[in-house]
Protein 1
Amino acid sequence: MSATPLVVIGAGGFGREVHDVIEAINDARAATGDPQLECVGFLADGHADVELVEERGVPFLGAVAGLTSLPADVRHVIAIGSGAARRRIDEWARAEGRETTTLVHPSAVLGRHRVALGPGSIVCASAVVTTNVRLGRHVHLNLAATVGHDAVLGDYVTVNPNVSVSGNAVLEDEVTMGTGSTVIEGRRVGARTTVGAGAAVVRDLPAGVTAVGVPARPLG
Ligand SMILES: CC(C)(COP(=O)(O)OP(=O)(O)OC[C@H]1O[C@@H](n2cnc3c(N)ncnc32)[C@H](O)[C@@H]1OP(=O)(O)O)[C@@H](O)C(=O)NCCC(=O)NCCS
């Protein structure tokens, strides 16, 4: 079977980490004989680590708008930390008829029962998702993040490294969970809210705030 062509949107540090995920998937697939992912390049508006991405043997292809010049079978993933930016690019790419794909690092553990990953979601090394969990479009689960039973993560949610999302928790669209933060069971974080690094969400948080500390409270 032929390789699946794929372009990475975002050419910064996380773009390179997502390329690591692609390489790890290909290593695992080489062992089983499954079709490889062929990373055809990186696209980015603004900052791009051109030298660092190209030393991986993958070309930097220029601005994100260049997606539409690539052959129609080239899928894309969005390796940009901002959920709002992912939403904008996803809405544009869908209007252009472009298809995304999900990426799951082989060391991640996904439960076998009713774990649904939305289109474009990226699950990094050592992340764990248990059972009956729903992830929306272009959700990022970064290194060693855990998501417990029956949790719901909306579209464009960003879960940074070592975050714990407990059972029945709800993260609405575009929530960002800072590194090492936690949400206890059943709590809800409102849309576009950012939870600071190391914070503990023990009460529901409203939409559109930045909350820090233990327990997490909105700044200002
Ligand atoms: C919460 C956060 C978004 C706030 O950023 P910001 O809006 O630029 O806020 P500031 O840095 O101006 O800090 C405002 C106040 O909050 C405090 N603060 C910031 N982050 C905090 C945190 N995580 N925990 C506790 N207090 C924090 C600051 O000390 C400051 O307090 P002060 O006014 O008494 O000095 C940011 O600090 C953070 O934690 N981001 C998560 C980043 C992350 O996880 N990255 C992972 C990449 S892989």
Protein 2
Amino acid sequence: MFDTLITNGTIIDGSNKKSYKGDIGIIGEKIDTIGLLSNAESKEIINAKDSIVCPGFIDVHSHDDFKILSERRITHNILQGITTMIVGNCGFGISPYGAAKEQMSALYQVDSLKYKWNNFADFFDLIEKNPPSINVGVLIGHHTIRRAILNEINKKIPNSDELNKMIYLVEEGMEAGCLGFSTGLVYEPGRYSNTEEIINLTKPLKKYNGVYVSHMRNEAEKLFHSISETIHIGTKAGTKIQISHLKAVGKENWGKVGKALEIIENHNLNGIDINADQYPYTARSTMLKALYINGTFDESSKYSPMGKSTSNEVLLCSVPGEESLEGKTLEDIQNFYDLPTEETVEKLIDVSDKILVAAFGMKEEDVVEIMQHKLVMIGTDGLDVGSKPHPRAWGTYPRILEEYVIKKQSLKMENAIHKMTEMPAKKFNIKDRGLIKENNFADLVIFNESEIKDNATYINPKNGPSGISFVFVNGKKAVVAGQETLLYNGELIRAS
Ligand SMILES: [Zn+2]
């Protein structure tokens, strides 16, 4: 007797192989049997006729670290069909606690937490006692451990005692079950570090088959150089490599993605385990202050590691204290003050240094070329903060299915789902997930191909998709007809 039997579905199993018709019987948290089971007994039967049944999506690039414990529900992710997310990206890590709180406060409010933790092992205990609605894997964040050990935020080279203390924190995280270590080399304080420091901090990963994950130092005119640095770090440390949100930003850099992908592919052919991830939009999203300190609006220079953007290309997502400005462009504010762009930005940063923006700067053809590459998987990089967050927080996965699979036919359905499921599971050593297979965890999405619709826009970003009838997390329904069930059936994913 099954707990749930899903019948008549078109199964896309995540492996990139062709779809097939079949039934799936779930017992407890696992997929028990796959086959033709229409006569089998089950406590509940779901008829998935006209629908695709696929593994739950694995978001390799989440920033909802604190939300796992503060809210436990990750609405913007679960409604998209994400059943596992990896937090701790771009160097923003969750431990040690004090430094994490300070670091993460650049992104969002972190005051309302009822828990504290001493280290990763402690944090993991808390998650296991208070499970979230989604499975969670965790990366160690470079900024956070740097902030915890170094007294000066802009110190360039740690002394050997400091370096050893930082290495110890990485070791503690890996031993506790973290999946890898991330950097964000345009942000404070990670941007002050040199390549050698990062190699030293990445070395402990090798023993655990962890992944070195990097938001690189430069995604603009020095893109190739940054890819080389990332590969150099991973190779020297002997770890797997993941390039976060691969892109070429700023008009002067459009078209560079072909060569970027070629560099990555050539190293992959030489036996280096390297991949990249991507969100499917031409606008990036980040802190206004980060763009400012990286010279995005500095008219005296043609270059910025984060790419140039004009004021009409920047949308204000979240403005703590001046919420009425959310949804306006930087140009709107500039016209109001009648000031040059950079001075307008300075005025805004005086209001709050936590302003988040969406900033256009990528070329659509580049976005498609990256998406189609066989070494690229999907991640949201979502931040559901403020009233007008970048729509990727709510729309990444349905957008790929609707826009790039069905409308533009840039990807085959099986391939798109592979990039969302098995590919990330393999990369991050996530066992028994990412594939529809007997004895795997029953993390599943059931959606209708002709009804799937991304409803998150830049103007109205906080909308879940249509067309997803069920999302299962560990055998239990987490979403029914586009609504969360709030069963909190997520698990902590420890490195295996
Ligand atoms: Zn990033």
